[in-house]
Design a protein that fits this description.
There is one protein chain. It is built from five helices and six strands, in the order ββαβαβαβααβ. It has 165 residues and is of the alpha/beta class. The strands form two sheets. Strands 4-3-5-6 form a four-stranded parallel β-sheet. It has a two-stranded antiparallel sheet with strand order 1-2. The longest helix is centred in the first third of the chain and has 11 residues. The chain is globular and about 50 Å long. The N and C termini lie far apart (60 Å).
Length: 165
C-alpha cells in the first residue's frame, strides 16, 4: 500500500492511502476455464476499484452460485459466496443496514435471471445503490453446457439434445 502526503494550511501532513490493483488481488489460484472472459472482468475490476476513491475496507462483493460467483475469492475485499439466486437479496439487506458500504453483486445469467430472477427484479425496482456485475455467457458453464435463460433459441447442447428425440 502506498501513501501520498498532502500539506495542509494548518502545517501538518495528512496521509491518504493510494491504492493499486495489487491491493485488490488475492493469493488464491483463479480456477476458471482457459480463455474464459471472466479473467478479463476480474482484471478490469481490480484496475478500476483503486480509482473510485472508496476506502478498501468499504468494498463488499456478494455472489451466488456459478462460475462468476467465485469472484469474491479472487478479490481482496470483504465479501461472501451466498446461496443460489439470493445474492441480490443478501446484498439488499447489507446495503440497508450499512449504507456507507460499496456493495457489489457478482452473478451470472443462470444465477440472477433464473432462480434469482424475482430477487433481481425487486432489487432493481427498489433502486438500491448496489452495483451488479452480471456475467452473461449464455450457458450454465459450471455444469458444462446446459441451457441458461439467455441461451439462443434453438440452441443445441450436450445435455438437452438427449431429450429432443
Amino acid at each position: 500500500m502506498n501513501f501520498t502526503s498532502y500539506f495542509c494550511e494548518v502545517n501538518f501532513f495528512i496521509m491518504i492511502d493510494t491504492l493499486s490493483p495489487k491491493d485488490f488481488t488475492t493469493d488464491q489460484e483463479v480456477r476458471w476455464c482457459p480463455g474464459c472472459g471472466d479473467y478479463s472482468i476480474l482484471k478490469q475490476v481490480q484496475t478500476v476499484f483503486p480509482t473510485l476513491g472508496i476506502p478498501k475496507e468499504n468494498f463488499v462483493i456478494i455472489s451466488g452460485i456459478g462460475c462468476s460467483s467465485r469472484f469474491p475469492y479472487y478479490m481482496d475485499t470483504f465479501g461472501m459466496h451466498s446461496i443460489h439466486g439470493r445474492a441480490t437479496a443478501i446484498a439488499s439487506g447489507l446495503k440497508a443496514s450499512r449504507p456507507e458500504l460499496s456493495v457489489w453483486v457478482v452473478t451470472g445469467d443462470g444465477d440472477s435471471l433464473s432462480i434469482g430472477g424475482n430477487h433481481l427484479i425487486h432489487l432493481l425496482r427498489r433502486n438500491i445503490n448496489i452495483q451488479i456485475l452480471l456475467f452473461n455467457n449464455q450457458i450454465y458453464g459450471l455444469t458444462k453446457g446446459q441451457y441458461s435463460p439467455t441461451s439462443e433459441v434453438q440452441k443445441s447442447d450436450q445435455v438437452n439434445s438427449i431429450w429432443k428425440h
